[in-house]
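## retry 2 of 3
previous attempt timed out at serialization; input unchanged, resubmitting
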Amino acid sequence: MRGVDDIDLVFGQDSLIPAIVQDARTRRMLMLGYMDHQALEATRSTGFVHFHSRSRNQLWKKGETSGNTLSVESISADCDGDALLVLAEPAGPTCHTGATSCWDDEPAEREPGFADLEPLWATIQGRSVDRPEGSYTSKLLDDPDLAVRKVTEEATEVLMAARDHRRGEVTDQRLAEEMADLIYHVLVVSAERSLPPALVLDELRRRRG
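## retry succeeded, writing output
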């Protein structure tokens, strides 16, 4: 992976530099994000695009929960050194709307994915840091044993709902609600254990291969 020298870069007053991501194969513009020194170093060291999340004020790996990562081919700076161009290979849609590019109007035709879990994971991560009073997520994070027990309970609820669904006794929506509860609680346990969901997706891809 071809890189750039930090000495030649001009970061803004907020210590950020804009980074445009372009498809390495098609040269299609995919998205715009912002990197600080930490995000740039993480991108270099891992080979996957990382940004600094301005809304959460923390490091963010693109595709951390959806699996729609960006594998870096090269990083270059513009003539003034105040903007980056990242050539990358996308693993699925890049935009959070499900579109191939953030400049597209319509979602791309794609296999079912988990892009909509990105905001949920971000919220859970935020709760793990802020621990706001009265938050159910914070309550689970403060009691790891409870969080794990809830996964067991919700898995049982899914089992029962699936059984009743086969009998025609519950609707698709009801089964989906139980599955959504299970996924949420699994993500809470992931946050409590500091286990990135991307590791789970990587394991699923490994098994598929």
